[in-house]
């Protein structure tokens, strides 16, 4: 069975991205893995003594994101496609590319928010980086309104 990885960020546009991914998975008889990459600094807060690491904050955020992934996984399964979910921490582009290699993924389905210009210069485009560096075919879904 073919494998599709769909990176998700829990934004409103995820519904459209997942819908496309499910349709694609049905066409090629594939299984979907929903992948979310959490920030590495979610347990840090700034206080009177500077930055402090608070593991309880990190655990709470990761538990919340795991629940959101479980809900999305259930939605995909209800649409008739086998689904797994994976929660990682790190730099999104690096974590996604490492995961698709290790998981022997066949396709990567990513969303494009339609930003360009100054946004890409200062913030960067995850989709652009993935399409340039991915060792597998990347399906880019326009998810902007």
TrEMBL record:
It is found in: Cytoplasm. Gene3D superfamilies: HUPs (3.40.50.620). Residues 1-142 form the UspA domain. GO terms for cellular component: cytoplasm. It holds the Pfam family Usp. Its main location: cytoplasm. Keywords: Cytoplasm. Belongs to the universal stress protein A family. PANTHER family: STRESS RESPONSE PROTEIN NHAX (PTHR46268), UNIVERSAL STRESS PROTEIN UP12 (PTHR46268:SF6). This is Universal stress protein. It comes from Bergeyella zoohelcum ATCC 43767. The lineage of its organism: Bacteria, Pseudomonadati, Bacteroidota, Flavobacteriia, Flavobacteriales.
């Amino acid at each position: 069975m073919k494998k599709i990885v769909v990176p998700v960020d829990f934004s409103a546009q995820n519904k459209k991205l997942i819908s496309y991914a499910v349709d694609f998975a049905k066409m090629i008889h594939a299984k979907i893995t929903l992948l979310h990459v959490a920030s590495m600094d979610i347990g840090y807060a700034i206080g009177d003594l500077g930055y402090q690491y608070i593991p309880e904050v990190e655990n709470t955020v990761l538990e919340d994101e795991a629940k959101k992934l479980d809900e999305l996984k259930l939605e995909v399964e209800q649409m008739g496609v086998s689904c797994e979910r994976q929660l990682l921490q790190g730099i999104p582009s690096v974590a996604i590319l490492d995961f698709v290699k290790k998981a022997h993924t066949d396709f990567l389905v990513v969303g494009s928010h339609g930003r360009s210009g100054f946004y890409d210069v200062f913030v960067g485009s995850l989709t652009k980086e993935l399409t340039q560096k991915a060792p597998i075919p990347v399906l880019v879904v326009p998810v902007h309104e």
